[in-house]
């Protein structure tokens, strides 16, 4: 039976006939009906021998699992005793990656509330849309980011309370209130299918959607890719750039390290490629999470300074060009661990590591998941044929009150919106977002393949490829290129890049039009926004 007396989210889940099929085929995916994920990952850490091991690190503080549990319990008391929040209430979280934001997120979920984490760069209008959708009763916000949130809540009385979470000297702040509380908070006895969090999609294709995940969903994700592919250990120290408000970051930089008994280091300021390499060396980090573009920018610094203790480099968030994989391997000697996931699925469901890596492929379906490549009618296509990816497993898409649910889930299968090819050995090869496939003169061209070819030219720093409408061919391949310093953006360079692509891949795939730009539009998580390139 649900412990969440506020039924707002439960009542706005999709109709049951639009739910994904959820499979719990593996023994480790079968959970009890009563489940609190923070109790499982944090409170039970002492019994697993993690109690006095470091969990959250920064330049100013290191907190053990026991320390974190005590601080989380104090925050839980503030939420329930001072603010009067009840299970099922939504709490908006706003801040950059930090120890403080991690403690706040864990406390919200342990208390049976619903965490609604937001990207720190969002403006008042975007925050207002999230408030309208999620109807949060309270917000815990980094003191430096209060201004936009205060603007957003002006005409939204539902958000009754906003508390800064990292201002210990400020009366009324979360830290000051929590310091007056005792620990020993009993975790809310949530049902496994009670709601733990709401994650807003990153907006690569327009207006974000709110994906809902239960306590069972998050723990199931911990038992899939981390157990079978990542294989972190309690001795691992994790760093990374994806925001905790993004499920790639939440899993990689909080949930999965806790599942393994590992620790996470949070920087004082957002990473640059150089500072990430420096942090890896200074902290002895062994696992790194970031996007392909960032790895490409980190490679020169890694080559110069080394990455002494790093053993796993996880790439996700967008397609990994093989040129970037090889550049990183040449700089560090490390084979990148690629994966594809989705906010709607919580995390990675296709991946490969170590000896299982195959050039150009993302990998195979992660144990616990089943994936196939299908046509427009949902029929599996022959191996070697491009089609749409369909996935089922222990997690799946459940949008909050959104008609787009019917586009994502069909006959129980999740359709992440990606075009793939699967080979005879079961490896999946990413082609493009399904709506980014370029059909030119009857040929299918995947933008990422052309991007990979362009990135292998020494003059290209970044690029994005789209299909541009054309009367004669239906579409032509158009590339937007950012050049490295010292190279001229002229007709001769455009021809040189076109010739380079023709010599690298099938000539019909070359970009008939190249536009040189100073930068590419990306989301806060680093994903290329091709829809903005198509609008330019």
Write the layout of secondary structure elements.
Elements: H1 37-41, E1 54-57, E2 62-64, H2 65-82, E3 90-94, H3 99-110, E4 114-118, H4 124-134, E5 138-141, H5 146-152, E6 161-164, H6 174-179, E7 195-200, E8 210-214, H7 215-222, H8 225-230, E9 237-240, H9 247-260, E10 263-265, H10 273-283, E11 287-290, H11 292-305, E12 312-315, H12 322-332, E13 337-341, E14 348-352, E15 364-365, E16 370-374, E17 387-392, H13 405-408, E18 409-410, E19 413-414, E20 418-422, E21 428-433, E22 438-440, E23 443-445, H14 447-455, E24 460-470, E25 474-483, H15 491-504, E26 513-516, H16 530-535
Parallel strand pairs: 1-10, 3-4, 3-5, 5-6, 9-10, 9-11, 11-12, 12-13, 25-26
Antiparallel strand pairs: 1-2, 7-8, 13-14, 14-15, 16-17, 17-20, 18-19, 20-21, 22-23, 24-25
Helix pairs in contact: 2-3, 4-5, 7-9, 10-11, 11-12
Structural description of this entry:
- By secondary structure, the protein is α/β, with parallel strands linked by helices.
- Among the domains are: about 200 residues, Rossmann fold (3-Layer(aba) Sandwich); about 100 residues, GMP Synthetase, Chain A, domain 3 (2-Layer Sandwich), CATH 3.30.300.
- The chain is about 30% helix and about 20% strand.
- The strands form seven sheets. It has a nine-stranded mixed β-sheet with strand order 2-1-10-9-11-12-13-14-15, with helices on both faces.
- The longest helix has 18 residues.
């Amino acid at each position: 039976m649900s412990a969440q007396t506020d039924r707002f989210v439960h009542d706005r889940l999709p109709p049951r006939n639009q739910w994904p099929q959820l499979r719990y085929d593996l023994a480790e995916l079968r959970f009890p009906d009563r489940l609190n994920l923070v109790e499982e990952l944090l409170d039970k850490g002492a019994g697993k021998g993690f109690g006095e091991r470091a969990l959250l690190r920064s330049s100013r503080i290191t907190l053990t699992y026991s320390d974190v549990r005590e601080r989380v319990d104090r925050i839980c008391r503030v939420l329930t005793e001072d603010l009067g929040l009840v299970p099922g209430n939504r709490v908006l979280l706003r801040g950059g990656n930090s120890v403080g934001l991690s403690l706040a997120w864990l406390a919200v979920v342990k208390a049976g509330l619903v965490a609604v984490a937001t990207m720190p760069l969002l403006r008042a209008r975007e925050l207002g849309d999230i408030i309208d959708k999620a109807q949060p009763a309270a917000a815990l916000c980094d003191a430096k980011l209060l201004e936009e949130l205060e603007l957003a809540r002006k005409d939204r009385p539902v958000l009754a309370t906003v508390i800064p979470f990292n201002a210990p000297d400020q009366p009324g702040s979360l830290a000051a209130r929590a310091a007056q509380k005792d620990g020993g908070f009993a975790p809310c006895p949530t049902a496994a299918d009670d709601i733990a969090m709401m994650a807003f999609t990153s907006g690569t294709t327009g207006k974000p959607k709110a994906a809902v995940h239960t306590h069972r969903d998050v723990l199931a994700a911990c038992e899939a890719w981390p157990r079978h592919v990542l294989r972190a250990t309690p001795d691992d120290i994790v760093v990374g750039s994806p925001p905790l408000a993004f499920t790639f970051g939440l899993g990689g930089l909080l949930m999965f390290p806790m599942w393994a008994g590992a620790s996470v280091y949070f920087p004082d300021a957002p990473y640059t490629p150089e500072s990430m390499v420096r942090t890896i060396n200074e902290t002895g980090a062994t696992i790194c999470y970031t996007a392909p573009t960032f790895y490409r920018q980190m490679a020169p610094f890694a080559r110069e300074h080394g990455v002494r203790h790093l053993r796993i480099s996880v790439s996700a968030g967008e397609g990994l060009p093989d040129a970037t994989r090889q550049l990183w391997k040449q700089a560090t000697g490390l084979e990148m661990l690629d994966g594809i996931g989705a906010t709607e699925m919580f995390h990675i469901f296709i991946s490969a590591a170590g000896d299982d890596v195959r050039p150009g492929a993302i990998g195979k379906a992660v144990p616990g998941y089943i994936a196939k490549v299908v046509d427009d009618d949902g029929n599996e296509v022959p191996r070697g044929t491009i089609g749409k990816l369909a996935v089922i497993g222990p997690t799946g898409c459940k949008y909050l009150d959104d008609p787009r649910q019917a586009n994502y889930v069909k006959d129980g299968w999740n359709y992440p919106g990606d075009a793939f090819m699967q080979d005879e050995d079961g490896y999946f090869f990413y082609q493009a977002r399904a709506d980014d496939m370029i059909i030119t003169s009857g040929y299918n061209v995947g933008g990422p393949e052309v991007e990979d070819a362009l990135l292998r030219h020494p003059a290209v720093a970044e690029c994005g490829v789209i299909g541009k409408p054309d009367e004669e061919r239906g579409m032509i391949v158009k590339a937007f290129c950012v050049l490295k310093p010292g190279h001229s953006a002229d007709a001769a360079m455009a021809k040189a890049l076109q010739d380079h692509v023709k010599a690298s891949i099938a000539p019909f795939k070359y970009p008939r039009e190249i536009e040189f730009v100073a930068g590419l539009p990306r989301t806060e998580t680093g994903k290329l926004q091709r829809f903005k390139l198509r609008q330019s």
